[in-house]
């Protein structure tokens, strides 16, 4: 079974979850969603106090004012103020967030509010060390009365749980003073009020993909620029065509294009386990997508571009599905791309394996074929949007190497890897720990310049996937056997925060901007997902939202998805607003919670949207 790890920046953690094999999409044109369910939205409000604040003054550029009871923003004498908040235990989609500051001295022209970088300390920050404003102003106040509250709408900045840093900057010499978190009157201290949905895990929509795009679900990847989804599907046979589709978050298929096989060129038997034209896809963060194309037994064609048999290919497509760039991974028949991720600059990071010798763009990479080493090795490589090489690194293992099991990219461009190695092993020329321990799962954090920052042996299971948030933590999900999986929470320096075991047949996972894992369990029967409740009759699947504190946020029962051994046909994605998307193959017709999708009898691919 293919395994893929994704790393997602969200408020400060790194998390790991499984993503399975994908398929891939004839032009079907736009299609209206089959169902637009209506539901009552419920909300909850939480008020957070500042965890740090300080003013800085240009006239005293090396002096710290972190213990002062007053924050200031003024042009003459020049001063600015910093505030930090930590949003926690928000499980639903944030619908409104308001920063409230109590003005102790008003102004005819109040200050502007910006986001800014973290890392500053309340007890040491000065004018000389203050962070700069980030992006456009979140708000700009006009006249402010003394003894009143200034309110800034910061909804666009608050996506869920995590740290937020704000900067007040004056626009006039008529400065504004506000109460700090050290103010003597506690009711006047800074407040961040967050309103969020409490309708958790509810089915908000369900749509059936067109029959023309096959009946087996592949993978789903969300484009944060448009909130559309890139979906891969196939007809699930060894002579299969795969499709790439772009679908709106309300289920409308914007376009669908096929990767079609040509005449068989393979001289031997065709293994039905493999798709003839396999495809993986991941959004490029700028409206397009990167593809990994694996023709087997025959050449394949996508939109007039031909991909020769026996080679692995990478493609970059724009938001309309047009090919922008292509790259062939060398060593025909021996180089495989098993995992894809995208860094914050839109560069593509690829993890995989090769046999013998390959050239990924940096010259030959070779694994000696000896009795101790079966001639396989792993690699991780980064390409720019033009698919030109940025850097490449290799794994070597005395006992052989299956390549990269899981892959993710952090908010600063760090690459998180999950890999299984045997015996003595190296990465980028450095020894991987635990050489005498036999097969072992290893987590590796790689700096943006491709040098390894740390390597950590986790267990003797297999890594199913990985994610990260911006808080500085890494999370891995590993599988011990078919009934047990393990979540590892690592600090960004590689030290263990906590690890826990959970039961169930885990098939796939994803992490959202709210810092919570979504886990998909297959045909659960009498399972406890971590909240002490036994669920499942063996005839339904379950999606579980698990906070990075290990607590279950919600559990949603869904129909049991179909599968084609050895591939599962389920995929998960999570949006920046906290919604979860399930892509799976179901028998028609189907009912998802209160939503029934009318459809002909048979089997089809469904996209299901769940509330945060």
Describe the structure.
With 612 residues, the chain is mainly β. It has no helices and 50 strands. The radius of gyration is 26 Å and the shape is globular. It folds into two domains: 14-37 and 199-610, Methylamine Dehydrogenase, Chain H; 43-197, Jelly Rolls (Sandwich), CATH 2.60.120.
Pick out its properties:
eleven-stranded antiparallel sheet, six-stranded antiparallel sheet, Jelly Rolls, 50 strands, about 600 residues, mainly beta, globular, about 0% helix, 2 domains
Strand content: over 45%
User: Helix content range of the residues, please?
Assistant: under 10%
CATH class of the largest domain: Mainly Beta
Radius of gyration: 26 Å
Total number of beta strands = 50
Count up the domains: 2
Number of helices: 0
CATH arch. level architecture of the largest domain? 7 Propeller
Give the CA-CA distance, first to last residue: 29 Å
Q: Structural class per helix/strand content?
A: mainly beta
CATH homology-level superfamily of the largest domain = YVTN repeat-like/Quinoprotein amine dehydrogenase
Label the overall shape: globular
Question: In brief, what are we looking at here?
Answer:
This protein is an all-beta fold and 612 residues long. The chain has two domains: 14-37 and 199-610, 7 Propeller (Methylamine Dehydrogenase, Chain H); 43-197, Jelly Rolls (Sandwich), CATH 2.60.120.
